[in-house]
Every structure is written in C-alpha cells, then in structure tokens.
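User: Teach me something about this protein's shape.
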Amino acid sequence: MDRREMFGVVGAVGAGLGLGAAAKADDHGAKPGGNAGMMAPVGGLHAHFCGIHIAKKNPKFQLIAQHYCGPLNEDTHQCLLFDSCEKNAKLLGVEYIISDKLYQGLSKEEKKYWHPHTYEVLAGGLTAPSMKADDEMKFMKALLTTWGKSWHTWPDPTTAVPIGEPLLMWAVTGDGQIDDKIVAARDKQFNVSVDKIREQRGKEIRLEVPNVSLPKSIDDVGRQWTDTGDDKPTRKP
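Assistant: First, the predicted structure itself:
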C-alpha cells in the first residue's frame, strides 16, 4: 500500500464505521434530490478515533479528546473534537491533519503549530474503537507520519461555558509524558489495553517507538522520531 492509498484509508475506512457521527439527510430537513445547501457539512465526518491531548505551553494539562474526522482531499483531513462520545458532549475544538508531504512545505513559523502522530500511533495512545482490528491497523498506518494542528476553543471542559483564549494542543511524543490515570480511563472506557496495542502495532509496523522530548517553549518545532540528527525512524530487527 503506497502513501496515497494509506492516507485515503482514513476517510474510506471511517465512512461506514463511525459511532453515530454521520448525519442522515432527513436529520437536516433535506431529502435526496432536494436542496443540497440544507445538508450539514458535518455529515461527512465519519471516522472516529480517540486521542490524548496535552497543552503545548503546559504539558501537565492533559485530557481525552474524541475526534470525528473526514477527508478534505487526499492530503488533508479535518476533525471536530469532543470531550466524550455522548449526545450532549462538549465541542472542544478542531484539528486539521495533513500529510508529511504538505507539512514539509510549511514555513518554520507555521510548523510550530503542528504536532506529530508517530508516538501516539506506535505507543497505543490513538485508538479507533469503532473499527474492526484490521481496519484500525490500516487507519493507524495511514495516520503514522501525518501532522495535526489542534486548537481547543473550550480550553477547560470542566467549566460551564468556554473560558479564555483558544489553547494550542500537542501530542504525547515519548514515554513518561502522560498521566497514567488518563490512559487507564481511556483503556477502561473502550475496553482496550495500551500495552497490548503497543505490542501489536510494533509487530505489524516494525518500527521502534520514538521517544521525543516535549517542546521547551511554545515556539519549538516538533519532531517525529528523534530529538536530534536526521529525523527518521529506527526499524525493529
């Protein structure tokens, strides 16, 4: 499977496997053949996956984010983020996901907003609980080298209304960075094991799990695989 095919899986696999995120025509008062303008664009956000976000300027602020995503084109996806999968979930913000090809063409000033997904995929931090095992593995291979730009417009979902400025979020990029209680809560919610996921993906993808330090400042540019040198993966023996 080449790079284009893998990235396309994010949209194609999710199309029939969401957790109720795909809206139906009659939910919006529109019918097939009717006024297409009545169809809400969110109806295309089929693919659901769960991740753990941390604030770039304060990595101790961490929370579980439910992503509902759809393709804009083969190199770009867009997601709505919620604090749960429930009907009354709070809309945390948005995330844009782009291919490494697009990311490498960005300016250094722009790159500081984009976090890598490599560690999250290989270490088991990202899960797609509504998918079958084979489909989830394809999904994660597609996400592996992508980059995300995530802003939480509801910075602290424990507040009754969104308070404060939008918060730039980051990804977990190495062991020991995430609160074990948050991982345990995610595992319990979806009846999964981060350790088993890590083991399975390591066997399938055959790449060592990266351990990249968290940014020292809001202006630091992220890295996928290593803190220094050529930012490339290490293959498992």
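Now, about its shape. Confidence is low (pLDDT under 50) at residues 14-33. Helices lie at 3-14, 100-104, 108-111, 118-123, 133-143, 180-190, 194-205. If you'd like, I can walk through any region in more detail.
User: That's plenty for now, thanks!
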